[in-house]
Amino acid sequence: MLMSEQADCVIIRPNEQHGFAGKQGLNYFAGIAAETAGSQALCMHMLRMPAGARANAHHHENHETAIYMLSGTVEMYYGHQLERHAVVHAGEYVYIPAGMPHFPFNPYAEEAVAIIARTDPNEQESVVLRPDLDGLRA
Prior knowledge:
Blueprint: E1 19-21, E2 27-32, H1 34-37, E3 43-49, E4 58-60, E5 65-71, E6 73-78, E7 84-89, E8 93-96, E9 102-105, E10 112-118, E11 127-129, H2 131-134
Antiparallel strand pairs: 1-2, 2-3, 3-10, 4-11, 5-8, 5-10, 6-7, 6-9
């Protein structure tokens, strides 16, 4: 594999300018993305989910997602009608296939922090909101 002459290693240092409000209804820190590092096939960012936070139902068109829970606990409904439920604790990994409807929520008293990687370099481009599913789960 030949390296592009423009390719370079990039270090992203967390700060406010890299934060963004996602379509999903949560706030993210965009670590690695096309916009921050020039990545071409992936993004990786941090999510701090406050106590009581809930994302909007959504899926990621044509892109897989991998999540590592750094701290706290979150719950997630997923499936074509959000019929499945999972509880994810610190130290656990989650894989979400491309196109899988889901929404995470934090019903606990403490903040949860996760590292999220996706096979989409433009983090928000593949997000498809699913308002048709939002009323299925409280």
